[in-house]
Structure to design on (240 residues):
């Protein structure tokens, strides 16, 4: 059965506010799973309907986030410099290392119950990557994967020319996902000069605008990502 995913475009929101919102959605779903698994009298259809899927789109004001296994030394500027530049900083509970979020970067947070899709985190990450690969293909850009590194790359097989256009990092609890992807659309890439992005040295980052040589309609990109998300995950997005 095709899954329905509740879609919200949050516009521009502070990172901590959206992190808290994700945590609340995840907790609601994990609590429901715990409840129904402990209720021997609950019938199967009730259990299946209990959890809900969500996809959040958002732009964040400038912020660096460090994954739970990341290295703080991958931030290359001092706290004073960071504050002077108006960039927030959070150490968070996703996988991965340091990354940047900022204006004109499309951040997507899927909160999905993978027990209703496929209980395979490798499949989930490859599917997220495929959403972005299909999206940039519509602009004539070939997106690729890089062995051992999540996210979407360009020229990943050309040493010295590898550049990441979309970073990914997730958390999963009781097969409920949170966090997600950060797709550089018209992003100011100078912010990445202050970090070692994703903890990967000697590889650069890029944006859709940089690759095309001109800015792109942000709303158009959102619509393409939504369409490709529905196709890759075989789901229906319901705006709320």
């Amino acid at each position: 059965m095709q899954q329905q995913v509740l879609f919200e475009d949050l516009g521009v929101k502070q990172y901590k506010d959206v992190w808290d919102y994700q945590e609340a959605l995840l907790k609601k779903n994990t609590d429901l799973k715990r409840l129904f698994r402990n209720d021997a009298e609950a019938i199967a259809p009730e259990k299946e309907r209990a959890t809900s899927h969500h996809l959040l789109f958002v732009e964040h004001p400038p912020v660096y986030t460090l994954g739970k296994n990341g290295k703080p030394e991958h931030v290359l500027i001092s706290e004073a410099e960071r504050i002077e530049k108006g960039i927030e900083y959070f150490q968070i509970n996703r996988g991965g290392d340091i990354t940047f979020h900022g204006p004109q970067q499309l951040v997507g947070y899927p909160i999905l119950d993978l027990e209703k899709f496929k209980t395979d985190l490798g499949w989930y990450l490859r599917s997220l990557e495929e959403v972005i690969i299909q999206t940039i293909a519509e602009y004539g850009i070939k997106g690729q994967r890089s062995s051992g590194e999540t996210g979407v790359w360009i020229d990943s097989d050309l040493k010295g020319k590898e550049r990441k256009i979309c970073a990914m990092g997730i958390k999963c609890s009781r097969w409920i996902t949170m966090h997600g992807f950060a797709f550089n659309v018209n992003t100011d890439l100078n912010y990445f000069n202050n970090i070692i992005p994703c903890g990967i040295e000697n590889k650069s980052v890029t944006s859709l605008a940089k690759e095309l040589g001109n800015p792109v309609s942000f709303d158009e990109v959102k619509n393409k990502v939504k369409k490709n998300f529905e196709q890759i995950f075989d789901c229906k997005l319901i705006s709320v």
